[in-house]
Design goal:
This protein is mainly alpha-helical and about 425 residues long. The protein has a domain of about 60 residues: Zinc/RING finger domain, C3HC4 (zinc finger) (Herpes Virus-1), CATH 3.30.40.10. Helix content is about 60%, strand content about 5%. The strands form two sheets. It has a three-stranded antiparallel β-sheet with strand order 2-1-3. Helix 12 runs parallel beside helix 15, helix 13 runs parallel beside helix 16 and helix 19 packs parallel to helix 22. One of its GO terms (biological process) is protein ubiquitination. Keywords: Transferase, Ubl conjugation pathway. Functions as an E3 ubiquitin ligase.
Length: about 425
């Protein structure tokens, strides 16, 4: 929850209820958390003509704080600089017009986009103002320009990208030196605007899906940063898209997403790729496309080297979804390490990982349990691991599924010498 202004904040604002907050905290409360009320009074806050919540700079409080800082300079207190005022819709519209007038001049266009990115980086209020001024449609139109347009010549312009990526659970900044064109810069800005649900839907529906096709093209063309921002945008868009929209994605999207996983681009981009695939394969049609794109094989290879909890969990979640299809189970069983690595992650990662790994083994046991597979599960220690699951604190869901697997093939496994006597004692009774 936002807090009152302290001597360390640089900007204080007053909301319509008369309560003063530091700007950064109240903006996080209002925009990132999608709240519309005053945190203290719980009253609805006043909006302006652009549907933005009114935050009025509290100059009196700022001057008092600055005066206190000046008096206490000898104690090591630095004077707080006067903050920049929030931008206005009129100013943003002027920037967009300047950018639009520069479409035939690559250097001027990219400079205009850089200016827009700077404004967006200053505050959440600025980002919402940029979105309300129609920047989403303008930036989308730049991204959807094909390679034969005049914008393609922008690829000769070189400058440093300085972007801050904000994901679900943390913040990470990075900078790259690359040749970039207007498409790359526009994609960068679109992601870092942290668009509202309506803004994301605008992208999804832009020119009957042309923006999605352009994202695919950016993912294919190999530029490091454009591929990264494209997958971040696709992840955000997939969260708000109608199921029918996602079900119609081209197979090439899955090919590129799987390739991104193979390439192991920045860790946060790999994480976003996994999250995107999990959202997309909710549709049965997309599961087939992902499997055809060799997703199962790549996931197994990643799991072999994965040491971190969250990536392991996401890989197992995605594998479990794909193994609901016969082709997915076939790919898992065809990989020499498929069954073994899934079993290995049980009781070594988390309760969630236990559940998903045992789910995968249950799918195999129910629908793909040939004599060879049943004996292989015994030979590589999966049966012993399942018996161990019943004895330790591995989560109730995992225990129930492990018990079901063991009952399914009790005739083949129960009297085996491959299971130690102490584990056999916990073997569930059949029937």
């Amino acid at each position: 929850m936002p807090h009152f202004i302290t001597t360390h904040e640089r900007s204080s604002v007053t909301v319509s209820t008369g309560i003063t907050y530091d700007r950064q905290s109240i903006e996080k409360w209002l925009f990132s958390s999608q709240n519309q009320t005053c945190p203290v009074t719980k009253q609805q806050l006043t909006h302006d003509d652009n549907h933005l919540i009114i935050l009025t700079p509290n100059h009196t409080l700022r001057r008092l704080i600055q005066a206190w800082c000046t008096i206490n300079t000898s104690h090591g207190v630095d004077r707080i600089p006067t903050p920049k005022l929030p931008t206005t819709k009129t100013l943003i519209e002027k920037h967009l017009k300047d950018a639009s007038d520069s479409l035939d001049s690559p250097h001027l266009l990219i400079q205009s986009l850089k200016n827009l990115k700077t404004i967006a980086s200053e505050s959440e209020t600025n980002r919402r103002c940029i979105e309300s001024a129609g920047a989403v449609e303008f930036l989308a139109s730049i991204v959807t320009k094909n390679n034969t347009s005049s914008l393609s010549s922008c690829s000769t312009t070189e400058f440093q990208i300085e972007a801050t990526i904000i994901d679900d659970d943390d913040v990470e900044g990075f900078a790259f030196d690359f040749r970039v064109d207007a498409e790359d810069e526009a994609t960068n800005i679109l992601y870092n605007l942290h668009l509202t649900e309506q803004g994301l839907k605008t992208l999804l529906n832009f020119k009957n899906g042309e923006f999605l096709d352009s994202l695919l093209r950016l993912m294919q063309k190999g530029n490091y940063d454009s591929r990264t921002y494209s997958v971040f945008l696709l992840k955000s868009m997939s969260k708000v898209a109608a199921p029918s929209k996602l079900a119609n994605l081209k197979t090439e999207f899955f090919i590129e997403l799987v390739q991104l996983l193979k390439d192991q681009i920045p860790k946060k981009a790999s994480k976003a790729t996994l999250q995107t695939l999990i959202q997309l394969v909710e549709s049965g049609r997309n599961r087939v496309k992902a499997i055809e794109s060799r997703c199962v094989n790549v996931l197994i290879e990643l799991l072999l080297d994965c040491k971190e909890r969250k990536p392991c969990e996401m890989i197992l979640v995605l594998l479990e979804m794909l193994c609901q299809c016969a082709d997915g189970r076939y790919e898992l069983l065809s990989h020499g390490c498929g069954l073994a690595i899934v079993s290995k992650k049980i009781m070594t990662v988390s309760t969630l990982a236990n559940d998903r790994a045992v789910r995968i083994l249950l799918s195999v046991s129910r629908f793909s349990a040939t004599h060879f597979v049943v004996q292989e599960m015994l030979r590589i220690g999966i049966v012993a691991k399942l018996c161990l699951v019943l004895e330790v604190d591995s989560g109730n869901k995992a225990k129930d599924k492990a018990r079901e697997i063991l009952k399914l093939h009790a005739k083949s496994w129960k009297n085996s010498h491959c299971i130690s006597s102490n584990l056999l004692a916990s073997y569930p009774k059949s029937g």
